[in-house]
Design a protein that fits this description.
Distance between the termini: 55 Å
Oligomer: single chain
Strand content: 35-45%
Largest sheet: 5 strands, antiparallel
């Protein structure tokens, strides 16, 4: 047997949902010692991009950000958990909801800090909208009702 016969390729299944953490560092804060709004938007945008990219497995761009709510300040040294999930899909677009929860590492207190929605569009090599793949139809997308119940 040769080396090729033992190689196994594992590919993550597109789930339409991702989660990751960011630590709020000094260079990301403003003069109040809290996360600077533009840096927060960058983190949420990154979460929306990763979620959409993993779901469609092709290039995506952000077409719109909407309804970004800064619910609570996020202090220096806090751990920020971003959870992003696909709400709806269109012909070439996806709506991604991102919720960020701030956690104080010293005592474990967690609070919802930011919520936002982002419209992501699948594009081709020329940056033109490209239809979403049809093979993701088995993935259950969270409904608006479920999102409002958890908010």
């Amino acid at each position: 047997m040769n080396e090729r016969e033992f190689q196994v390729t594992l590919q993550a299944a597109p789930t339409g949902e991702i989660s990751f953490f960011e630590l709020v560092l000094p260079e990301q804060t403003n003069h109040y010692g809290t996360l600077y709004g533009a840096n927060a938007l960058e983190m949420l945008g990154k979460a929306a991009f990763i979620c959409a990219s993993r779901y469609v497995r092709r290039a995506v761009v952000m077409a719109r950000s909407e309804a970004v709510d800064f619910v609570a300040p996020i202090k220096l040294g806090s751990l920020l958990e971003m959870k992003a999930f696909i709400i709806t899909t269109g012909r070439s677009s996806l709506t991604v909801e991102v919720n960020a929860v701030s956690e104080t590492l010293s005592d474990g207190v967690r609070i919802t800090a930011i919520r936002g929605r982002f419209i992501m569009v699948a594009v081709d090599a020329n940056g033109q909208p490209r239809p979403l793949p049809q093979d993701n139809s088995e993935i259950v997308i969270k409904k608006e009702k479920e999102i409002n119940e958890t908010a």
